[in-house]
TrEMBL record:
Name of this protein: Branched-chain amino acid transport system carrier protein
Keywords: Amino-acid transport, Cell membrane, Membrane, Transmembrane, Transmembrane helix, Transport
Pfam families for the chain: Branch_AA_trans (PF05525)
Source species: Mobilisporobacter senegalensis
Annotated family: Belongs to the branched chain amino acid transporter family.
Length: 456
């Protein structure tokens, strides 16, 4: 008899998904975007929700509907070597290159930096991040109940603390959103700017990495029918992402309202700290800082574990789990000391390259059955998307890098010939062209095969 999940099962699944996705970036980017969007906060929020909530949900749904056993299998529909490339780059991006170092720097920005003078910030970050990743490594190498304890105790405490802050800020706004000035970039393209800001959460990428986790848990609960597994995946994903959407909307609003008294912060971590201190003074800042440090540490432990296990499975004849965990912690520590602003700055070009590949893979997986999973369609779309995404990558590079490599000519050419390139969506039309070419190849191949069968 096919088991049906109960309401408590869906709550458990949604809570687990929320814990997997909700990390440092989910807090800082909507607040910072709200400060910049000002009076145009609603169009920006809508764009942010598309990439910060909609795409991760589609990624989870695509994993369930296409009956995939993970990112590697989904990527293999293009080509096995491409799948290895995509898996490695994606896990390194949501792992030791950007997301894991960000957990330490956000904790530092919110909890430690406000109490320091400018002269001691760098050495303090080095000491803090060393202790942070020493603890992360210790727990990553010694599986214990600490992850459960942190997830069941500290995460709820953090969410309650955040809830108190958000509700207080919404009831007693610092300023009126309609009166807040709008920063450059959000004046006429608020929706598209918000769309691109949602890339920073990295959740659409994470959905490709973590989607299989929710599927395995559903199967372990006794659900065996593939269609039922897919349906339960959609339900739990929708529940979890709805909670995320409410949090994003609230954080964006309080970020915009904060401009009533304060200037735009250097990053979202600083903004969140300022807002917390405004309402609750030093005590509120300390409570938020402590809970955020532990919440970020939990995220870092989960990501180190996930990345180490993935690379161990992907390259079984290389290093073992222990050595990957050590290497990723050391690498994360080194990158964390570049500071939050630099991490964000250098992550943006990578995200501009990776997100189009993730979006097209998700959409193709969703409609997999309609073209019988024809590899020619996967390959055609991916090739055209990669070519265009390279130009998006180039455009998003920091100005000093672009100037030193003399990339102005390439950027000018792309601006002239790639539609929507100037708003960061230069990959859209090439992807559609790749889809059309892939469909033509698919139907011509099908027709040729059919005719040969008839002749035989």
């Amino acid at each position: 008899m096919q088991k049906k999940l109960l309401l408590k099962d869906y709550i458990y699944l949604a809570s687990m998904l929320f814990g997997l996705f909700f990390g440092a970036g989910n807090l800082i980017f909507p607040v910072f975007m709200g400060q910049m969007a000002g009076a145009n906060v609603w169009p920006a929020t809508m764009g942010f929700l598309i990439t910060g909530v909609g795409l991760p949900l589609l990624g989870i749904v695509a994993m369930g509907i296409s009956h995939s056993d993970g990112l590697y299998e989904m990527g293999s529909r293009v080509h096995p070597k491409y799948s290895v490339f995509l898996t490695c780059v994606l896990y390194l991006t949501i792992g030791p290159f950007f997301a894991i170092p960000r957990t330490a720097t956000v904790s530092f920005e919110v909890g430690i930096a406000p109490m320091l003078s400018g002269n001691t910030t760098k050495i303090s970050l080095a000491i803090f991040s060393f202790l942070f990743f020493a603890a992360v490594l210790w727990f990553s190498l010694r599986p214990s109940n600490i992850l459960t304890w942190v997830g069941k105790i500290l995460n709820p405490i953090f969410l309650v603390s955040l809830g108190i802050l958000v509700i207080t800020a919404l009831i007693n706004p610092i300023g009126s959103v309609s009166q807040i000035p709008v920063a450059d970039g959000f004046v006429s393209n608020g929706l598209f700017k918000g769309f691109l800001e949602g890339y920073n959460t990295m959740d659409a990428l994470a959905s490709l990495a973590f989607g299989i986790v929710i599927i395995k848990v559903i199967r372990n609960l006794g659900v065996e029918n593939p269609n039922t597994v897919a349906a339960d995946t959609v339900k739990s994903g929708f529940f979890s992402m709805s909670i995320m959407a409410l949090i994003y909307i609230s954080l964006t609003l309080i970020g915009a309202q904060s401009r009533g008294l304060y200037d735009i912060s250097s990053n979202g971590g600083e903004a969140l700290s300022i807002i917390s201190k405004h309402y609750f003074g030093n005590v509120g800042s300390i409570i938020l800082a402590v809970t955020m440090i532990f919440a970020c540490m939990k995220t870092a432990i989960g990501l180190i574990t996930s990345c180490s296990e993935t690379f161990t499975e992907l390259f079984p004849n290389s290093f073992g789990y222990k050595y990957y965990a050590i290497a990723f912690c050391v690498l994360s520590f080194g990158i964390a000391n570049f500071g939050l602003n630099n991490i964000i700055s250098f992550s943006i070009p990578v995200l501009m390259f990776l997100y189009p590949l993730a979006i097209t893979l998700i959409l193709l997986s969703l409609f997999h059955k309609f073209f019988k999973g024809a590899r020619c369609i996967y390959q055609s779309v991916t090739i055209f998307t990669i070519l265009a995404a390279i130009f998006d990558f180039i455009k998003a590079l920091p100005d000093p890098v672009k100037n030193s490599l003399h990339l102005d000519g390439l950027i000018s050419m792309a601006s002239k010939y790639l539609p929507y390139y100037n708003i960061g969506l230069g990959w859209v039309i090439p992807s559609l062209i790749g889809l059309i070419i892939g469909i033509i190849i698919y139907h011509s191949t099908f027709r040729k095969t059919y005719n040969n069968m008839v002749e035989d």
